[in-house]
Amino acid sequence: MSCRTKRVPWRDHARAWFNQVVTDRHVACFPVVEKDGAIVACAVGTLELGVPNPQCPRGRTARRANVITLPEHRGQGYATALVAFVVAWARSIEADRVDLSATPDGQRL
């Protein structure tokens, strides 16, 4: 049975989370790159609120995650553009810092 046909609990949680935040640009952003009407790359930016500290005076951290480009569209700067978009979004919501969790393939970003 594939992941698409069986019930996967995290997907229900992800769907509920997405439905809650998708329209609030102060909580999350979801930039995409389209080519010929199809999404070929995407990213997620989320705001995390924590305890203010010297490195994060307001306790506002933007996290870049799920930066994905379809294999046949890699090497064209899409991921770099998406990361820049999330950084600009983080500045617009006055995040103190921006973090990126990356796989080994994405560490150069």
Could you characterize what this model shows?
By secondary structure, the protein is α+β, with helices and mostly antiparallel strands. The protein has one domain: Gcn5-related N-acetyltransferase (GNAT) (Aminopeptidase, 3-Layer(aba) Sandwich), CATH 3.40.630. The chain has helices at residues 9-21, 78-92, and strands spanning 28-29, 32-35, 38-49, 60-69, 97-100. Strands 1, 2, 3, 4 and 5 form a five-stranded mixed β-sheet that branches. α2 (78-92) links the parallel β4 (60-69) and β5 (97-100). The longest helix has 15 residues, at 78-92. The radius of gyration is 15 Å and the shape is globular. 17% of the residues are buried.
Descriptors for this entry?
109 residues; Aminopeptidase; 5 strands; 26% helix; globular
Summary of the model, kept short:
By secondary structure, the protein is of the alpha+beta class. The chain has helices at 9-21, 78-92; strands at 28-29, 32-35, 38-49, 60-69, 97-100.
Question: Which helices and strands appear, and what pairs or packs with what?
Answer:
Elements: H1 9-21, E1 28-29, E2 32-35, E3 38-49, E4 60-69, H2 78-92, E5 97-100
Parallel strand pairs: 4-5
Antiparallel strand pairs: 1-3, 2-3, 3-4
- SSE pattern, N- to C-terminal: HEEEEHE
Number of domains: 1
Query: What's the overall average pLDDT, rounded?
Result: 91
Number of strands: 5
